[in-house]
Design a protein that fits this description.
Helices cover 24% and strands 28% of the residues. It is α+β, with helices and mostly antiparallel strands. It has a nine-stranded mixed beta sheet.
């Protein structure tokens, strides 16, 4: 339960514009407890889980369920009407997602997510540059896009210099784009990388997907 609960709790708190201190006060907890829950360092007792679910008006399944609720976008309703999308090991430059050959498996997503022509694919995480938010072998579902305007401060798949896609948090400003790993314990190996406007155009640097959901398997 810890990984999914931690990610979902943080998402719900941020979605409701609450600090850890504010949420702790509303739940009658010390703010450090909220921080430990969100980091997966401590598990809540069931009475606290129920209190949290009631506070945010979500089901227990959504709060501690198998897959995490949306991290970068709105929470989407779950239905029985599904479609299958490919889970890829890598993404090769210059090849459309639909034509990628490194397909590991297919997974189901709610068909409603594809409303309006939205397309999705999955990537199996390799490495720990985005740990602890994402762990190796997690499957992350991406919405296909090349729109920089909606990628700022999101976890994205990015194609750089014609190589396989990389997965990083993205910060965009008037000077360029910063790709930021999340692993706080390996800062020497995982440093942010900045690309200016000229590099974005010439390398090129392309957003190819925004993370919408992760699925963790035991």
């Amino acid at each position: 339960m810890e990984n999914n609960f931690a990610s979902n709790l943080k998402h719900l708190r941020l979605q409701n514009n609450l600090t850890q201190q504010e949420l702790a006060k509303k739940l009658g907890k010390d703010y450090s407890t909220i921080g430990k829950w969100e980091l997966g360092q401590r598990s809540p007792i069931m009475t606290d889980v129920i209190k949290i679910a009631n506070f945010f008006n979500v089901s227990l399944e959504k709060l501690i369920g198998f897959s995490t609720i949306y991290d970068n976008a709105e929470i989407m309703p779950i239905t029985n009407d599904t479609v299958q999308i490919p889970v890829l090991g890598t993404i090769k430059a210059g090849i459309p997602i639909e034509a990628q050959e490194d397909i590991l498996e297919y997974i189901e997503i709610p068909k409603q997510w594809t409303k309006g022509g939205r397309s999705f694919y999955g990537l199996k995480i390799s490495g720990d540059s985005m740990f602890p938010k994402y762990s190796e072998k997690d499957i992350v579902i991406f919405e296909q896009t090349n729109d920089y305007s909606i990628a700022n401060n999101k976890d994205c798949a990015i194609m750089v210099n014609g190589f396989d896609a990389t997965f990083k948090n993205v910060t965009i400003n008037e000077n360029g784009i910063m790709l930021i790993p999340l692993n706080p314990n390996n800062q020497d190996n995982y440093l942010p990388t900045f690309y200016n406007k000229e590099q974005i155009e010439n390398l090129p640097v392309r957003i190819i997907g925004i993370a919408r959901e992760k699925r963790t398997r035991l």
